Amino acid sequence: MTENRPGYYGRFGGRYVPETLMAALDELDAAYRRYATDPEFTAELDDLFHHYSGRPTPLYFAERFSRELGKGRIYLKREDLNHTGAHKINNALGQILLAKRMGKKRIIAETGAGQHGVAAATVAAKFGLSCTVYMGEVDIARQSLNVFRMRLLGAEVVPVRSGSRTLKDATNEAMRDWVATVDDSYYLIGSVVGPHPYPMMVRNFQAVIGRETRAQLMQAADKLPDYVVACVGGGSNSMGIFHEFVAEPAVQLVGVEAAGEGLETEHHAATLSKGEPGVLHGALSYLLSDSDGQVLEAYSISAGLDYPGVGPEHSFLKDSGRVNYQAVTDGEALAAFDYLTKTEGIIPALESSHAVAMGMKLAPTLTEGQIMVINLSGRGDKDIHTVAQSMGVVL
Ligand SMILES: Cc1ncc(COP(=O)(O)O)c(C=O)c1O
């Protein structure tokens, strides 16, 4: 647990929100604390994880991938095999159960790659709540498949035309909606970002990834991993797998940001590698900003990593040195996408491909018997058009 006082991770986190939201955040915090340890709530969530989402997801030994890259053993945590195709459903299921118990009638969500939007629309359909998803116009264009899925699921998808027309702007609009409708609407945030209690709550709903990984690896190899590698957008799949191992100093944790066209250019989304502390979407954290403190536009080929902020706990883990944050370019991610597809028959999401690319860089340094776990946060079906475009192929 790196939360030193409620809502803070070192100096990061907090609640930088309009007065109108303070009561709603207190209500949410109280509901979360009440239900997080309620046996009926946790049993219902476990049941949904198992029967609806398909958990536990496999911890798969990528034998060919490992053998071709070096001496170590590389395992993939298969979050791509969850219902709806990514880890986002873990958090969406947890939060919808809270929304129901809090008597809310409507769900608001923001989305970048569309995976969280699909997860929110899915759980809203299952539990009979209405759902409005805010999505930047740029992301709508590159993730049209997920937009159609959300609409099929009965959600209203609202195009956001302000700013960079990506995830940051969609989050602004979702928060604006929430301020105006806070009595009957529940804001279902999709990552470990936003004001307290969201970063803590989303991490805890995602922590099932790390718990399963530890148990599965103990069974398969009777040891802890030497490395755990995960991509970082807002930071939920990485916090979800890291949380279990933060207190295990022998486990090296590697977070992978998007270096886009290169860290030396202005076109990247490497918030922790290149940002400065600042406030975005209700929390103090690292942020891509200019010398006046204005938020800069982020860029990545991967819509889910294209965000100028990051969860506050990651900022703390960077400053404390517990997690090693690296960045991977679009080109390296595309090469890793291709390599994993061809060596293992698994098509990863472009977000997850960033973690795979980092794994490929680390693999030659592994010695006999060392183990690396890569969190495969999602499947690549949603990215086929982007990949085809990058290859000059018209579908
Ligand atoms: C498959 C996948 N992985 C990773 C991410 C990045 O989000 P986070 O850093 O919160 O896990 C996304 C976001 O949309 C995603 O769809």
From TrEMBL:
Record's InterPro entries?
Answer: Trp_synth_b_CS, Trp_synth_beta, Trp_synth_beta/beta-like, TrpB-like_PALP, TrpB-like_PALP_sf
Q: What class of enzyme is it?
A: lyase
- Keyword line: Amino-acid biosynthesis, Aromatic amino acid biosynthesis, Lyase, Pyridoxal phosphate, Tryptophan biosynthesis
Where in this protein does the record say N6-(pyridoxal phosphate)lysine is found?
K88
Q: Which intervals hold domain Tryptophan synthase beta chain-like PALP?
A: 54-378
Tell me which stretches of the chain form a coiled coil.
none
Q: Which GO terms describe its cellular component?
A: cytoplasm
Instruction: State the reactions this protein catalyses.
Output: (1S,2R)-1-C-(indol-3-yl)glycerol 3-phosphate + L-serine = D-glyceraldehyde 3-phosphate + L-tryptophan + H2O
Q: How does it assemble?
A: Tetramer of two alpha and two beta chains.
Q: Report the sequence similarity comment from the record.
A: Belongs to the TrpB family.
PANTHER family from the UniProt entry: TRYPTOPHAN SYNTHASE, TRYPTOPHAN SYNTHASE-RELATED
Q: What is this protein called?
A: Tryptophan synthase beta chain
Gene name linked to the record: trpB
